Amino acid sequence: MSLELAKEVIAIEAEGLLTVRDRLGHEFEVAVDIMMNCPSRVVVTGIGKSGIIGQKVAATLNSTGTSAIFLHPVEALHGDLGMVTSTDVVLALSYSGETAELNRLLGSLKERRIKIIALCGNIQSTLAQHAEVTLNVAVPREACSLGLAPTTSTTATLALGDALAVALLNRKQFRAEDFRRNHPGGSLGERLKVAVREVMLTGVQVPVITDDQSVSDAVFELNRKNLGAVMIQDAANKLVGIITDGDIRRTLSVHKNLQEVHLTEVMTKNPVAIGGSLMAADALSIMQQREITVLAVTSEQGCLEGILHLHNLLGKGEFRFLI
Question: From its record, what is one biological process in GO terms (predicted)?
Answer without folding.
Answer: carbohydrate metabolic process
